[in-house]
Amino acid sequence: MRLVTAREMREIDRRAMEEYAIPGVVLMENAGRSVADAVERLLGGLGGKRVVVLCGKGNNGGDGFVAARHLLQRGATPKVFLSCAPEEITGDAAVNFTIWQRLGQEYFQLATSGSLQLLKIALLQADAVVDALYGTGFRGKATGQVGRAIEAVNAAGKPVVAVDLPSGLEADTGRVNGPCIRATVTVTFGLPKIGLVLDPGVEYRGKLVVADISLPRVLTDEAAPDRYLLTSELVSSWFAPRPATAHKGDFGHVLVVGGSRGMIGAACLTAQAALRTGAGLVTLAVPRSLQDVAAGKLTEVMTAGLPETPEGALSREALPVVAALLKKKAVLALGPGLGQHPETVALVQELVRAAVCPLVVDADGLNAFAGEGGLPAERAAPLVVTPHPGEMGRLAGKRVAEVETDRVGCAAAAAREWQAVVVLKGARTVVASPDGYLGINTTGNPGMATGGSGDVLTGVVAALIAQGLDPFRAAAAAVHLHGRAGDLAAGETGEMGLTAGDICRFLPAACREIERRREVVNGVSGLG
């Protein structure tokens, strides 16, 4: 599913009206009706129900007036509150406000004396609330009576249907700078706005409904072709069935370079995850003193020993050995459990610059470039990096709070600067490519915030590159599968006790879901 910014959505609306002669009042009618439909579904019927409708002065408020009218016609008792003076309402919103008045219906102004107390009383009596205060143009902080009205709605605890997006939420970033409606359902129009799928927007929107308001499909289909919500439908479309005559060489050979004394487990998780996600062959290269440990843990993985320092970290002398191991390998996964010994840092820096096969770099592989101004853009091969916000901050010279405030912007800028696919991990992981493609993940749960989870993800990305996906699709599909495996694992273990090993164990089940979805789409019955 495509994701749009506020500006892109306004352009779609403009073109629908100017190029296709669809009146704005028709779009508003369809939007308001879809909101009324959502309220009716939420309440299980409207007869005798009381609904508070909060309306602003713009088109969002106009949608609210239409919704109020449809609620009235279906037997509900709407009570409309305005955040502005009536004369401030213009355009199509004014048309629908006039209709509301000519139906003999009253309204209340939030700016008048005692109006907030009146709203609180109405909320006590209400069965539901429609939030049509602010639309996609909102920026900053809801203040004054409107801010207090939002706080009153949240305090009332009644079901809320937000129009297009919750008031107080920024459409492009998901940022909340002050009071913000906590919706039960958000009905957004045409296409979802990017802020609705980012944190903290996800926490405020409730269930997301994308309503068709008769915008020409040619406009919505061509909108934001490089920005995606990573759904199972989209991800499954990137995979082809495995040929009946396939052999292990068809699915690529992954080389994992990682591990150090005390941190061999991270590299083992990466190798195991690569196997569990379908790589044909996996070789794990670790410090020589740890090779037997790795071989004992991983039955199906080949192992290699590399030169090491007295402290049990990889030595710079490992470079020619790794170069030899890279022959006939499809991808190099570099970083899990490496540590930050100066010799290891030097090794990593040389490998990233010189490797001729695609690289997936995580953890200490990224830390090797902290203080270096980021990853080198001049390299011999494609690169995928998978930083968490702390690692991204160190690489980009930003505070973690800055990274979290604009995850999309930070990931996109880093991808352009480093000429790499950037996977900015966290709730709603963001995947950005150097040529402008962007994906936002929909899977995963808080239980996945556990040691080793990122090492598993590195293995999944590497496995998908080995099987032929381009680096962006491999990274995007990997975060979806990784999150889905975590969801399946949490269904068995719960979130509190979830481990990285559990995520790894459920990767085949997550992959099977994708296979089944692809079979359904392609009309495969499964009968031989």
Shape: elongated
Rounded mean pLDDT is: 96
Major sheet summary line = 10 strands, mixed
CATH fold-level label of the largest domain: UDP-N-acetylmuramoyl-L-alanine:D-glutamate ligase
Identify low-pLDDT runs.
Answer: 524-528
Mind telling me the CATH class of the largest domain?
Answer: Alpha Beta
What's the CATH superfamily of the largest domain, by name? Ribokinase
The gyration radius over C-alpha positions equals 27 Å
Which structural class do you get from the secondary structure elements?
A: alpha/beta
What is the strand tally?
17
Distance between the termini: 33 Å
Q: Which sequence of strands runs across the widest sheet?
A: 8-17-16-15-14-13-12-9-10-11
Portion in beta strands: 5-15%
Q: What is the number of independent domains?
A: 2
Helix coverage percent: 40-55%
CATH architecture of the largest domain: 3-Layer(aba) Sandwich
Continuous helix count: 21
EC number: 4.2.1.136, 5.1.99.6
Subunit structure: Homotetramer.
Keywords: ATP-binding, Isomerase, Lyase, Metal-binding, Multifunctional enzyme, NAD, NADP, Nucleotide-binding, Potassium
Protein name: Bifunctional NAD(P)H-hydrate repair enzyme
